[in-house]
Amino acid sequence: MSKSVDQPEMNRREFLGKTVVAATAATVAPGVLLTVANANSEQQGVSSDVRWGMLIDTNKCADGCSACVDACNKENGIDLQQKPEGHSDEMWEQQRVQWIRKVKLQDKQTGEQTNLPLMCQHCEFPPCVDVCPTGASFKRADGIVMVDRHICIGCRYCMMACPYKARSFIHEEVANQLANAPRGKGCVESCNLCAHRIDDGGTTTACQDACASKGHNAILFGDLKDPNSAISKVLKEKSSRQIRADLELNTGVRYTNV
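Predicted structure:
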């Protein structure tokens, strides 16, 4: 059963959020309250009439293919980052930023393996937003979960709260970056469903386009609230699953054949 904003859990989240903000403000600058600037779900030009989401068909996700990962890295300038001097390959692998990664699941009984891309699941009730002390982690009215780098203090509470390990922390200075995806040392970041494309009137994500160009067509992006959208029609025809559905987060990313 889905959660309601009137349930006690939501009130508790609001209470904890306010409490943590007050405590953090006292430690950063006594008498100064940190406020959230433009980090709410009612941003200009973003409508709650839309909820962007993604459907991934794992049967079409090819083993060994990294097209979606590569496209995401290029779209957001992540491919511009280089291993810092003095870092070992092991340290670099642990610390390098990843907005999307390929995961391989195996059925313990049958041994059957499933490939799937895993990224921010854009939850309706995002744990990362609940624990953020400054409001840097927020959910837009259209369902996209994002990070405001201007007020992110790098506490990484959101990384610990995310059950999907979908967020990355920038450990080093960022020398090269793109205007559509500003990045900086000491901030957390994650998949934002190519929000810059959506805000410019686009209808696809970089990972979807790359997957389609390879002929796999495993990723379908669209408006979950529009009954006539391609993603809504497929969801009506096929059964889908959420990753960690037991958490009742009502994710915006769904998977078929898992």
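Summary: Residues 8-28 form the longest helix (21 residues).
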